[in-house]
Amino acid sequence: xxxxxxxxxxxxxxxxxxxxxxxxxxxxxxxxxxxxxxxxxxxxxxxxxxxxxxxxxxxxxxxxxxxxxxxxxxxxxxxxxxxxxxxxxxxxxxxxxxxxxxxxxxxxxxxxxxxxxxxxxxxxxxxxxxxxxxxxxxxxxx
Length: 142
Description:
Number of strands: 8
Structural class: alpha/beta
Largest sheet: 5 strands, mixed
Distance between the termini: 26 Å
Helix content: 10-25%
Shape: globular
């Protein structure tokens, strides 16, 4: 179990959880209103997961059993798909019973990349579980 031995990057009742790499503007910002949910955040790529393709962050809302796989990307948005899928496979056993959600924050959303075959297939497979945005994504945990 990879996550059990690791320390979360946020407090369990943290009100704002920011997933961002150093020196990069792209970020995912989750608001835990009044700290009512129990949350955990992990840096995956390069910290928990080494020598494998993986998304950048994992945010867990343990109260509602939701797992957010977060990839911060440049402009090549379709490269995020294998990283998100790889992370899900690695942590699937630990996240049994969790709703899996995917978030991509890229520097620029290019229409031809969003309409690529790979991206459309992934979006069709996961439906509303996937959200993507340019530069900064903000969402309220619920």
